[in-house]
């Protein structure tokens, strides 16, 4: 890395006007005394959370010259090695010598591109008066690597695409209680949310451009965050696996059956490779594999996992029938709403099926697109009664989308999905 390039990048950021940031539910904490990490799928808004925090610091009177922001995907910083990271503070002090000795804020975006960065950050925390913030699009990067290197001196926050509440706020749609017209509008927007997803740029983009942007996202995530990062040799297999995942969100994933299906298509692959590739997709925040709730960890590991994808809008980008399986899409959105708050989530299947539950017996949720069919209603009522008997202290919910009068009284815990997602 050339030091003149680094100086130019540092000064350019200080002098630039930051873009307006729409508020998110997640706010980057400052003044914690810890390294703060933001982990999440690419394009979910991590950089804008940085910009929002920087603007708030400036509004509190912090001199912008004391704030260093670097994006390690900037071509002017390539190639940069761990032993060159000391150049960052050295160049910053040369550009702004008047700030030497003052408390500094260091924002490092997509830091996983520099091998060994976590040891350098640890040394900074030990030797400099600096607050460090980092982002990455790899889960183990900001959980295992950061936590191991800093030994309790870091906190990691997960960043997801927009929730349905945030989606409505970005679309500047007001929620008006006890208004039939507003309820109809919000139900319509929920359907749009299922189709376009919650990536901030997509929500704000012209409707005609959304498919093109999502197609770009899918290629970027596949190649940069999976194929290149993990040195995947069988690119065709990875693409087919990713397509399978987005085609089957909200469904059980049986690796043995998937292995047989791929083999029948002439794709040579071992089960171990499939498990490895699924691990890569999880690490890149593209999929979540929900375990079955079992008392025995051994049984839990041997049962199929329930698959959920990070964003329902990406389903169309992977050519996975965007108009099909709306119930599974809705189930995935409900899962993501709960996953934003907690990680100890499971599904349950033993005679009766429960889409989502926790380890403590305090929560269970079933999701259905429509309860209009009598057989569907009977099955879902039986599942809810099972849940109530199994976990009597739980907050049990049966969520639906398609409206019909009197549905809320048809079974215990019945609630319109949009109300649940908006916490109304």
What does this structure look like?
The chain is α/β, with parallel strands linked by helices. The protein folds into two domains: 3-159, 3-Layer(aba) Sandwich (Rossmann fold); 165-421, no CATH class. It contains 17 helices and 13 strands. It has helices at 3-15, 46-59, 86-95, 117-127, 139-150, 164-170, 180-196, 200-204, 210-230, 235-247, 255-264, 271-283, 297-302, 314-317, 326-339, 374-390, 417-421, and strands spanning 35-40, 67-71, 104-109, 130-136, 154-159, 252-253, 287-290, 305-309, 345-350, 352-358, 363-367, 395-400, 414-416. Strands 2-3-4-1-5 form a five-stranded parallel sheet, with helices on both faces. The chain has a five-stranded mixed sheet with strand order 9-10-11-12-13. A hairpin with a 4-residue loop joins strand 10 (352-358) and strand 11 (363-367). Helix 1 (3-15) crosses helix 3 and helix 4 (117-127) crosses helix 5 (139-150). The longest helix is centred in the middle third of the chain and has 21 residues, at 210-230. The chain is globular. The mean pLDDT is 91.
């Amino acid at each position: 890395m050339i030091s003149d390039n680094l100086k130019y990048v540092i000064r350019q950021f200080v002098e630039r006007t930051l873009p307006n940031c729409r508020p998110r539910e997640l706010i980057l904490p400052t003044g914690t005394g810890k390294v703060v990490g933001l982990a999440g799928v690419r394009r979910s808004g991590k950089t804008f959370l940085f910009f929002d925090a920087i603007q708030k610091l400036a509004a509190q009177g912090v001199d912008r010259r004391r704030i260093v922001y670097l994006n390690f995907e900037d071509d002017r910083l390539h190639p940069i090695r761990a032993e060159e990271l000391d150049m960052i503070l050295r160049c910053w002090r040369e550009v702004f010598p008047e700030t030497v000795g003052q408390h500094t804020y260091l924002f490092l975006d997509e830091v996983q591109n520099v091998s060994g960065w976590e040891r350098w950050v640890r040394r900074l925390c030990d030797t400099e008066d600096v607050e460090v913030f980092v982002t990455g699009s790899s889960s183990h990067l900001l959980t295992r690597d950061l936590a191991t290197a800093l030994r309790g001196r870091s906190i990691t926050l997960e960043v997801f695409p927009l929730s349905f509440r945030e989606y409505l706020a970005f679309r500047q749609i007001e929620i008006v209680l006890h208004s039939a017209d507003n309820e109809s509008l919000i139900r319509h927007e929920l359907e749009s949310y299922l189709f376009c997803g919650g990536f901030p740029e997509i929500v704000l983009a012209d409707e005609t451009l959304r498919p093109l942007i999502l197609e770009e996202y899918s290629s970027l995530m596949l190649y940069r965050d999976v194929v290149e990062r993990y040195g995947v040799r069988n690119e065709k297999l990875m693409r087919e696996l990713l397509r399978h995942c987005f085609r089957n969100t909200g469904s059980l994933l049986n690796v043995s059956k998937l292995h047989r299906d791929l083999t029948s298509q002439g794709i040579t692959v071992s089960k171990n490779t499939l498990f490895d590739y699924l691990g890569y997709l999880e690490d890149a925040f593209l999929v979540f594999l929900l375990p079955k709730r079992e008392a025995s960890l051994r049984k839990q590991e041997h049962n199929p996992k329930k698959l959920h994808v990070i964003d329902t809008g990406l389903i169309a980008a992977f050519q996975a029938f965007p108009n099909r399986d709306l119930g599974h899409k809705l189930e995935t959105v409900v899962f993501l709403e709960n996953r934003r708050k907690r990680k100890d989530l499971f599904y349950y299947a033993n005679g009766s099926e429960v889409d989502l539950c926790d380890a403590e017996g305090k929560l269970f949720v079933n999701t259905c697109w429509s309860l209009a069919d009598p057989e569907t209603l009977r099955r879902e009522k039986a599942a809810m009664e099972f849940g109530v008997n199994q976990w009597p202290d739980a907050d049990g919910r049966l969520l639906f989308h398609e409206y019909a009068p009197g549905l809320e009284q048809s079974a215990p815990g019945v609630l319109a999905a949009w109300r649940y997602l908006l916490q109304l």
